[in-house]
Amino acid sequence: MKRYVIVGASIAAVSCVEGIRSVDPEGEIVLVTAEAHANYGRPLISYYLAGKTDIPRMSWRGADFFEKNRARLLLKTRAEKIDAQEKRVFLSNGETLSYDALCVCAGSYPFAPPFEGIESVGRRFSFTTLQDALALEETVTGTSRVLIVGAGFIGLKCAEGLRDRAGSVMVCDLAPHAMSANLDPDASGILERHLESNGITLALGDTVERFEGGTAHMKSGREIAFDVLVTAIGVRPNTALLKDAGAEVNRGVCVSERLETSLPGVFAAGDCTETTDVSAGASGVLAVLPNAALQGHAAGVNMAGGDERFDKGIKMNSIGFFGLHIMSAGTYTEPVLEEVTDRTSKKLYAAGGVLTGFILVGDVRRAGIYTSLIRERTPLDQIDFEAVKREPSLLPFGREIRKKKLGGVV
Amino acid sequence: MKRVYVNEEWCLGCHLCEYNCAFANSGGPDMARALRGKEIRPRIRVEGDGDAITYAVSCRHCTDPLCIRGCISGALHKVDGVVCIDHEKCVGCLTCVLLCPYGAVQPGEDGAAMKCELCLANSCGAPACAAGCPNRAIVYEERGEARA
Ligand SMILES: Cc1cc2nc3c(=O)[nH]c(=O)nc-3n(C[C@H](O)[C@H](O)[C@H](O)COP(=O)(O)OP(=O)(O)OC[C@H]3O[C@@H](n4cnc5c(N)ncnc54)[C@H](O)[C@@H]3O)c2cc1C
Ligand code: SF4
Ligand code: SF4
After folding, report:
1. ipTM score
2. What is the pLDDT of residues A216-261, one digit of tens each?
3. Which residues lie closer than 8 Å to A142 by C-beta, 6 or more apart?
4. Most Cβ neighbours (<10 Å): which of A137, A167, B30, B101?
5. Is residue A410 in some structural domain?
6. Do A327 and B99 touch (CB under 8 A)?
7. Of A187, A220, A235, which residue is a domain's last?
């Protein structure tokens, strides 16, 4: 009987269990996570704060998942060291686990530059775990002035989640635009106006120089008084465990299409890895939930002796703020369509005869057709691209392909 | 399993399937009352070039659905092969819309996503679109399985 060990018990790890079990119903599976909670939709923590979900409903694959899949779960336990030679993992509880196949699904950690005076701030939080959300729930009251540093999607989701709980919510970022890592200035502009009309105060192009208790001294000279601080500058892949074990690591852990690391019998999946972004033709950290799930599943299948590839990876994200939907995907090369109104924006990008990216705000209907064109690298001269540019539908694919899609099993 | 399949060459473009779908999922007993004067939100959609080509698109109940893998809440799941949404769990992020290669998921009225669930859980018990199609351009039948 094979012995599988998985580090982490989140999206990639749970998908890894699904992958293993699709091939090997027998093998022994152990998961180890540092968190007190496992198998929850991490992006739901802002919805939790907004009262739109609760802990039972946040369970990603159901409360009985580990039991049903005969997997042992160790909560609040860290994997501290991997001995790849002897195929063993050393845990913080003193246990040593030996494995035939190991998958590291360690995700990412919140990164914050060392702000001067940060230790003088009494109530400061990051926003990446359910524990963070529970702590904010406890500390934020109707009179709290919340300052969030970082206007990326995590910081802004936190702002949305806290709006109705807090007295006020302000988000600052050195970048001149909201979600500048994902969006173009037109899309950001619509988002910024929408956030402000929904009661979020933005301070863009400005960030904290130093903290002094409950005061943030900004680069611009402005002083902002706050009661609760959330830092959401960004996240970085958790690579240390594998790096120390001797695996090849770049920004993320380097893995093949089969999710193998450079160490025999050791796989990695999810936010801690870097994989080929087919829209860029380059390697990158594609840290979003769908990729973590797809990678985790493929890793599990391969650990159990099957063959599944992760070879269509792109960055992609669908997110909503106070009812405004925003989607982005791929790489923003040459714009081939730009349609901007007050409240909607649609941009498509293509290069080398294939669609490489898009940014949609407001009208996001059937965007998956665009996503699929990017992931499949569909040659645009084989479809009626002018028609699909105007509106995503199956029309531009022609009758033969439609027959396969709508008349066959996919 | 049985799925909804489309015979494009027989589609008349009458949009009856859209009405039958919206009615079947309205929960009400009376079609006129359920739909009259309202913008209908069917889970099947007739597409085409507005002229010679028309065909209906609904969820393919994929063998290995991208929407289920990528759903951030775990609301999307399979029940005996049928891809369903748990409206209690869905938070309306529309990641499933971003992922579905067929454009078969839409935002629903309750803020949750909405898609074809083959009418198995509503009062029809079998796809209303297929049952009501006048030209058998939509059928509900067994056409084998792909390898997972
Ligand atoms: C607020 C927020 C909103 C988000 N919104 C979206 C969204 O809308 N759409 C989207 O696609 N993505 C979103 N994401 C990103 C998404 O949550 C991640 O891509 C996804 O969770 C990655 O899954 P993972 O399994 O790779 O890693 P993670 O979910 O980060 O899990 C890694 C786990 O490994 C554990 N771990 C790490 N090291 C060790 C160790 N040495 N020993 C034991 N355990 C360890 C960690 O404690 C953690 O539990 C959001 C993220 C956040 C924080
Ligand atoms: S919604 Fe789309 S991806 Fe999901 S099963 Fe249906 S056709 Fe497949
Ligand atoms: S909209 Fe609902 S069903 Fe779709 S991905 Fe988001 S949570 Fe899942």
Report:
1. 0.97
2. 999 999 999 999 999 999 999 999 999 999 999 999 999 999 999 9
3. A165, A166, A167
4. B101
5. no
6. no
7. A235
